[in-house]
Amino acid sequence: MLIARQKRKENIAEYIIYIWQLEDILRALKFSPEAIYSQLVDKQQVPDQEKMEIFFWYQDIVNLLRSEGKEEHGHLDLTLHLIKDLQELHESLLKLPAGDEYRKIFEPLAAELPQIRARMDKVAMSDIELCLRALYAVILYRIKGDEEHKTFVDDTLALISPVVAQLARIHKEIEDGKFDLYKKTEQK
């Protein structure tokens, strides 16, 4: 909960990926309240009252996964809506003068998106969801120590990370009132 709050304030892309990791951890713990408490809550160095708040937050995530029918796989609608917002921002930046810098960063990735789509078997997925899923796949490959996908990992980090980082930065600046999509240059 504490990490999620911080990531949500600072970097929307990291927040989405963090929630995806949390979904997988909760599934691995089989949504067991005892396992969630012992593995995720009890080890935190916070007062007992805060531990209970954290525990109930995890339980809220479990309840959302269950209510959305995503106990075994899939991502919470919350993250999918955030991705849709990021996709809309991405599309705006590709068209509007304020997106000049973003387009330069996106250009190398744009040429590789068809191959990434094919490799990940996600033909109909939006550009930004595809990028976030590729970054999440990299995390999973690294956790597993999967050397077979090293080229994919390196390519993904080199091409996708700068684009997602820039998009997340612009998203935050818009939320903070420091970026105007309809001006030619960024406001600082």
Q: What percentage of amino acids are in beta strands?
A: under 5%
Whole-number mean pLDDT? 92
The run of helices and strands is HHHHHHHH
Q: Please tell me what the overall shape is.
A: globular
Number of strands: 0
Which spans have pLDDT < 50 for at least 5 consecutive residues? none
Compute the separation of the termini in Å.
31 Å
Largest sheet: none
Q: What portion of residues is helical?
A: over 70%
Report the structural category.
mainly alpha
Number of helices: 8
Please state the CA-atom Rg, rounded to the nearest Å: 18 Å
Features of the shown structure:
188 residues; 8 helices
Question: Could you characterize the architecture of this molecule?
Answer:
- The protein is mostly helical.
- The chain has eight helices and no strands.
- Helix 1 (2-10) runs antiparallel to helix 2 and helix 7 crosses helix 8.
- The longest helix is centred in the C-terminal third of the chain and has 26 residues, at 150-175.
- It starts with a helix and ends in a 13-residue tail after the last helix.
- The mean pLDDT is 92.
Short précis:
This protein has about 190 residues and is an all-alpha fold. It has helices spanning about 1-10, 10-30, 35-40, 50-65, 75-95, 100-120, 125-145, 150-175.
Topology:
Blueprint: H1 2-10, H2 12-28, H3 33-41, H4 48-67, H5 77-95, H6 100-120, H7 127-144, H8 150-175
Helix pairs in contact: 1-2, 2-7, 3-4, 6-8, 7-8
